[in-house]
Structures
1.
Amino acid sequence: MTASVIIPMAPAHVPQISELERATFSAPWDEAAIRAELDNPLSLWLVAANGEDVLGYVGSQTVFEDTDILNVAVKPAARRRGIAETLLRALEQRLILNGAQRITLEVRISNAPALALYEKLGYVRVGLRRSYYEKPREDALILQKRLLCRTSDACPYKTEKERV
Ligand SMILES: CC(C)(COP(=O)(O)OP(=O)(O)OC[C@H]1O[C@@H](n2cnc3c(N)ncnc32)[C@H](O)[C@@H]1OP(=O)(O)O)[C@@H](O)C(=O)NCCC(=O)NCCS
């Protein structure tokens, strides 16, 4: 198991995130766009770091109570060790504290590892966007997860009971 900590993205992480974006996605975020997220008050990006090394990251933006996950990636050599799951759970905890109530994301319909990850974490399929992706052209599944606070201590807004 690779030891890693989950921390907010910092300027020093940006070049490695950019490199992993380019190695992973056919339409990667460029370095300037990732760096701009550091100053975006709507954005929260978390990094799984082992010392100076970025093993994985998740990027998100939240408008009012709705969060979009923009991207998630883990270095090939560090996959299947729970890093993406830990990143997503850490993101959820922070979003709950900030009052977010729902996470939405798109995923390529053929991306079995990502679909397995999201479904393990309780995301459900709520829609399909035809030909959403390019390079290669492919449909996107839209997945959502409703965030519920289990105790009033964990959530400054509404608890699960109060929301019913
Ligand atoms: C998808 C991705 C982020 C998963 O990262 P990871 O750190 O390897 O995932 P984890 O080890 O946390 O796996 C958690 C769960 O996801 C599922 N999962 C992850 N990879 C899987 C695979 N290759 N095959 C099947 N299930 C997989 C499993 O349910 C796993 O739980 P388990 O270990 O108890 O079986 C990684 O494969 C990746 O970076 N892929 C390329 C980028 C990408 O597709 N991002 C998503 C875009 S929407």
2.
Amino acid sequence: MTACSNRDSKNRDTGLPPGLLTSVAREYGTPVFLALDEDFRENCRTFQRYFRCGRRRVVHAYSYKTNNIKALCKAAHQEGLAAEVVSAAELNMALSLGLDGRQIYYNGPFKPLDSIEMAILRSAAIHVDSLTELENVATTADDLGKPARIGLRLTPIVGDRDGLVWGKFGLSLDEGEVDAALSRIQSSTQIHLEGLHMHIGTNLTDSDLYEKSAECMADAIDMVQQRLNRNLQYIDIGGGFSAASGATPFTAHTEEWQPISVDEVGKRVDSVLNRVDPDQRLNVVTEPGRILAEASMALLCRVVSVKMRQGRRQIVLDAGTNLLPTAYYTRHPLSFPSRDDETLGGAADFHGPICTQYDLMAAEVSAPSLSPGDLVLIHAAGAYTYTFSCQFVGPRPPVVLIQSGHTVSLVREREPDNILWQYDHLPTDGQKS
Ligand SMILES: Cc1ncc(COP(=O)(O)O)c(C=O)c1O
């Protein structure tokens, strides 16, 4: 069973024995993130097994921003995945993990000039997001006298979802930007257009959306062939695949919510590409994030206090939405490792400890009777959690890696208290003593 596969896969508990959780809590304190090595690796393998796109060569690039704990990024590469990065820091991290630049896809709407230079020098693929950026890449490549490998990110606005929100990314076919980009590429000797890129959303459950946007890509492939008389090497369909992790978005009915079938996505994209590439020469790149990482981390915390308010238990935990911002829009499954009895104590709301009324981690959960000090495990806490967390009022907790169900290693240290002020300076002038 795995958290990442087709629709028949089941939500998976961490399967970690309560004794192990108690000893992790004792040794590292709470809250503490648990990164689950086997689950993550199994998700990487399952995704690679299920995602096929005809006979095309497929490259999967793990999306660092989803969860950039170094131990997980390294595990992804050991499992054969390349890297998708969106900042100079992530680009440096991928290089520091020993990746060859050719295994790195550099995305995002803002790429500082020095990071463009680094990407060119290391032969990473730069996915150009705007005409301004294309100019920056062309000038930098000319200055360096080195070719820039690029892809063009397209803006396929599919359906009437939140199309315009995603419209800030990439180049639009409709607005003539792709056309203008191809003219600029034609006039440059150092720009090598190798691929086209799209990324149409996250937590997607509907393979139709991939098919529709692949059609948009097919039109662009046609256009490149006609205008540049050149064949592309790859099509990058981005990430966005929802995971069978047990977490569901507030916008969905839990019972009806079905994660996407990745083999269906691969088939649909392949059949669209066959229209413009019947010999299947184009490679396909994917950039999975959530589907690999969501179920691969849990947040272990403790009950701080229990209060009754209008007949409902209000439970305050020592971990809040500053660590798990996804709780604002996601139902995370909870389990209660300190309680082995099944006796329910009725519905409870679980709050975080930070000083805002919005710090609600889970509402109306059927939970056993709980007391201060009891452990609570928040599941499916591995996607856009630590990377989106912040130091609202305190340092961030450690992350430990669990391997083989029992080996525990510290993979990210707890930040020190002085993280709140260590990078600050007091002005030297005009201070009253
Ligand atoms: C360009 C790009 N690729 C890949 C991803 C990963 O998406 P997901 O975690 O939904 O698979 C994202 C996430 O926002 C992205 O922006």
